[in-house]
Each structure stands twice: as C-alpha cells, then as structure tokens.
Specification:
5 helices; 68% helix
Amino acid sequence: MAKQSKDYFGLGWVVSLILAIIPVTSWILGVLTRFGEGKIVAGIIRLFFGFNIIWICDIVCMILNKRIMRLLNV
C-alpha cells in the first residue's frame, strides 16, 4: 500500500485535496496543521497570508506532491 500523506491530520490524499480546494478549510487546516507540527512561524505566516497565493500553491502541491506546501520549516 502506498504511503499516506500526513497533511490535514492524517486524512487521505483525496480528502485532503478536496479540503485544500475549499479556501476557508484550506486556510484554517493549513494554520492548524503547521501549529500542530510545532512550526510557529510558518503557522503565523499561513494565518496572515494563507488565503491567497499560499492557497493556490497548496492546491498545486497537493496535486503534484500529495502534500501541502512547506514554505518554512521554522
């Protein structure tokens, strides 16, 4: 079986892709995911900028890499 992505709280790739397409859920879950990983700075950046360009990048990365975009690992 293929390795499942850990994005959006361990949900499957298809469910995570659907949630990433919806702007509000993508923004909220992106922030919660980054804070949950302990990446405070990345969570704050997603909180303020996650509803525009980062949202589009998340959709593209989710389709291509099956993971949300990792802008910072801080």
